[in-house]
Specification:
Number of helices of chain A: 7
Structural class of chain B: alpha/beta
Largest sheet of chain B: 4 strands, parallel
Order of helices and strands of chain B: HEHEHEHEHH
Structural class of chain A: alpha/beta
Shape of chain B: globular
Strand content of chain B: 5-15%
Strand content of chain A: 25-35%
Number of helices of chain B: 6
Order of helices and strands of chain A: EHEHHEHEHEEEHEEH
Largest sheet of chain A: 7 strands, mixed
Number of strands of chain A: 9
Helix content of chain A: 25-40%
Helix content of chain B: 40-55%
Largest interface: A-B, 22 and 17 residues
Oligomer: heterodimer
Amino acid sequence: MTLVLYRIDDRLIHGQVVVGWGQPLDLRFIVLVDDAVAESDWEQELYRMGVPPEMEVYFHTADDAVNAVAKYQADPRPGLLLTGDIATMRKLVDGAGVTAVNVGGIHSKPGRVQRMRYVFLSPEEEQQLRDLAARGAKVTAQDVPGARPVSLDDLLAGNES
Amino acid sequence: MNESMTQPANDDAQSHGVPRAIVAGHGEFAAGLVSAVEQITGRGTQLIPVSVAKLSVQDIEELLRSKMLEHGVKVIFTDLQAGSCTMASRRILRGMDDAILVAGTNLPLLLDFVFAEGRPAPEAARHAAERGRAAINAYGAGA
């Protein structure tokens, strides 16, 4: 196996990731790419305690992750890579050859407009998603495995169903 | 009229409605459980259900913190160990030695908690967690 999903989710490790995706994909590791978490032992311990014992979590800054992704892609176990924002994923699309991006959750915040039940975007973030696609990444929105993947065009148009 | 007769017949009845804990989790988890507690015991108002759909992690933390302050409670019940509410609660409780978080909440646990009004809420929550854990059983299919 390899990294089977590259997900943008501002909640990082949470129920949908650990259980919703983790069980059907039999995930054995999560690569959490977030500068703030990578610098905090306390936050890392918090996220480690949220996953089952058979699942490992690796932490990287965005810059570190660019070089580390190849190692995880070669891992025989199924894994999931997670970023908390689009800009971090952009670094991995540019620097690590990520070709498919799952928008899993970007939640409400001032300046953002709701596009889907679980996706709220500012105009800048909409452009960032378009930029990912322009660089060759296939961008779809899908919160859980049982949901239909929504294309970037439909996501930006607010066509969830 | 005897002054004492103007008091409620059961002082304990007045405390049944005082908020003592927050319940938070995915979807309608909190509202559903609190509704069940109310239906079974009439003591559901001890629990404040919080729904966090659509909220970012930061907003979840802010909401839970504000609810704790507003109601003066030091107990949070959440659903999943890995859930966003659990993560946010752990951040809130960092350094708060007199508060408690219980993850993996179920109905038997909350029922035990609402009947333990004589105990400090954090102590009652710890006791209830043990009751909740012990209340899970499997029947049939080779049992």
